[in-house]
């Protein structure tokens, strides 16, 4: 068996250094351990075998010292610690290796809670995964009010908090709050909480401001040791753990349908924490961690995480950033909901004037009013200050004429999805803006090249496709037309970065990436229903993937009219692969918002519009039909050069369609299932090494 140290040969070792601190008010000497990997906050401290060994050695040096009143742990500036070194973990190929990793973490971390003297964790910065678990093992915890991220994100990646988190956290803050941090937040786009919220939940016993955090923490620790401060914690053993676990399992089934094992294992461990001894609980974590480290879901999760953290930050094919032009004013054509969301985002992120135009004053007032109302909500939630709110309101204005765009550097249209309408809009804008002004379109399916064909300067037209809701969805498809030049493209990518979006370069092809694949996917499911497959059977045929919503729920969200329009556009481009459902057209004609009632029970009248087919399929037939169609379409897109690599397809599906991390996007799943005749990714990528 390969020694686990060899798997972590590239580990950036987090060193644990010890120095003595004399506590205030004569409380005695504290051995303060500082965790630091030698880099600044942009490379947070993690733990592989080397880091765990260093912490173990520091604890060895402290053990048996009779002169100590306490032991403290603190991180380097802005970072406490962010958990295990997952690069090495992804190389594990034997279960015994996986068990070693779990047991080594427990062996070292638990010593902090089993010392002869009290231990204090001073959480001065980001604390995630194993980093938070270090703090949980300590007797007491303080936290800085400025901590930006506290989380146990393991379930997001296909793991469980396996170094004590599932056992210690529910006993500290109660099972319901623990479910939120361990399961709910990771499955909600890996949500993090800040220091203040962590303190409010009881994760920490005291909170201090960042400026003098360590000094105040040491003073507080001194008061605890002297008996001047008593830390009292609620006894959660009497809580209804069974109901909490049952409710959480019900919600997991609704969201994942059993597709990802990690959250279910985490829930089992949380339930065990109520009665298990420390040894029993930690041993169960070891077994769960070993099982999951040997699973494809972890590799898929790490693959998707790497896409989001690395590839999204250095988009393939993007021109040199130095070519980007400065944007000092933005114009938005249209004042509907999508346009108004964009205007708010531009104002918040770019902090430049943003002007909306529309056809009449009522629409314009509604759009600008929406932006101002959203700013008021941000103010009420404390997300912006009063001064910031005033500045943002002043930045967003409206105009009935496009003359207001004369000094704009970036104008984006968000009007009706019709080629002639968009061509007319661009011609009107081009007449008033400078020759260098970027003209962007938020089209979801139309040809960018055709849209720019009648302009004097088609080279400055670029696709800038947001996803709804604009403020939440992280993906931005940046589309290069046949004539789009590098300066325009570089400016679009620079603006995307300023908007804090993850941008992917896409060729000008029908519906680009996300809408092309979702339309094909939905079209196959709707086609099966048209042929006579019961609607609910077809709608739930792909539940095993753990997708964020079923196809007909997605149809409800998108709107049947929009879905029909995109299907018609795609049918015109690829008639042999994209059909137009007559039943969907009847649904639109009937004015139905979808097949579900507001309570998401099926609407009998809407379902009846899909009756009439005589060739029903089984659920498995529907599943294979949809997946084979996706595999075919992805292969064609790669052959056409719509994106540069399968990784860009996966990045788009994860960030633009909510495709689950535990699948790794779409291509790893298709590879693992053997759906595609030729693999999209090399063996071992997003799957267990052979």
TrEMBL record:
Residues 512-594 form the 3-hydroxyacyl-CoA dehydrogenase C-terminal domain. Pfam families: 3HCDH, 3HCDH_N, ECH_1. It catalyses: a (3S)-3-hydroxyacyl-CoA + NAD(+) = a 3-oxoacyl-CoA + NADH + H(+). This is 3-hydroxyacyl-CoA dehydrogenase NAD-binding domain-containing protein. Keywords: Fatty acid metabolism, Lipid degradation, Lipid metabolism, Lyase, Multifunctional enzyme, NAD, Oxidoreductase. Pathway: Lipid metabolism; butanoate metabolism; Lipid metabolism; fatty acid beta-oxidation. InterPro entries: 3-OHacyl-CoA_DH_NAD-bd, 3HC_DH_C, 6-PGluconate_DH-like_C_sf, 6PGD_dom2, ClpP/crotonase-like_dom_sf, Enoyl-CoA_hydra/iso, FA_oxidation_alpha_subunit, NAD(P)-bd_dom_sf. In the central section; belongs to the 3-hydroxyacyl-CoA dehydrogenase family. SUPFAM superfamilies: 6-phosphogluconate dehydrogenase C-terminal domain-like, ClpP/crotonase, NAD(P)-binding Rossmann-fold domains. Residues 329-508 form the 3-hydroxyacyl-CoA dehydrogenase NAD binding domain.
